[in-house]
Design a protein that fits this description.
InterPro entries: YtcA (IPR031381). The chain is mostly helical and about 90 residues long. About 60% of the residues lie in helices and about 10% in strands.
């Protein structure tokens, strides 16, 4: 004979809170991982930052571009990941 214990199921509910958010994003019927969407948005934000820096005439004041742009992309990607998926 199977005994149902509602108290035990209530104790298990907080453990299911981690399963509430799926880090996949649906785009045109396909699911993409959240990190991939964050990376694309990070590249776009880096391009926008480059255009802003060029308009302000600050391109010469930042560090070496080979280091700055990948660092900016990584920064924007991690920030977007933390804001939307963490």
């Amino acid at each position: 004979m199977k005994i149902f214990r509602p108290q035990l199921s209530l104790l298990m509910l907080p453990l299911l809170a981690g399963c509430s958010r799926n880090p996949n994003v649906e785009i045109v019927g396909s699911y993409f991982p959240g990190w991939m969407v964050s990376l694309v948005a990070g590249v776009v934000l880096t391009a926008l930052a480059h255009m802003l820096l060029r308009r302000r005439g600050l391109l010469h004041s930042i560090g070496h571009p080979a280091l700055m742009y990948p660092a900016m992309t990584l920064l924007f990607t991690c920030l977007l990941w933390l804001i939307f998926f963490a």
